[in-house]
Amino acid sequence: MTNDKGIFIKNIYYMLAYAFQVLKQKNYEDIASEEFDDIQDMFAAILSRGISQQLKQGLHREYITRYEDTPVMRGKLDIHGAIKNEIQRKKSLACEYDELSADNIYNQILKITVNILVRDSRVKPERKAELKKVILFFNEVGTVEPMSVRWDMLRYQRNNKNYEMLMNVCYFVLDGMLMSTDKGSYKMVAFSDKHMHRLYEKFVLEYFKKHHSYFDEARAAQVKWNLAEDTEESMIRFLPIMQTDIFLRYRSKILIIDTKYYGKTMQTQYDKTTLHSGNVYQIFTYVKNQDAAGTGNVSGMLLYAKTDEDITPDCSFVMGGNRISVKTLDLNKEFSLIAAQLDRIAEEHFQRENTVNE
Question: Which of 28, 120, 158, 348 has the fewest beta carbons closer than 10 A?
Answer without folding.
Answer: 158
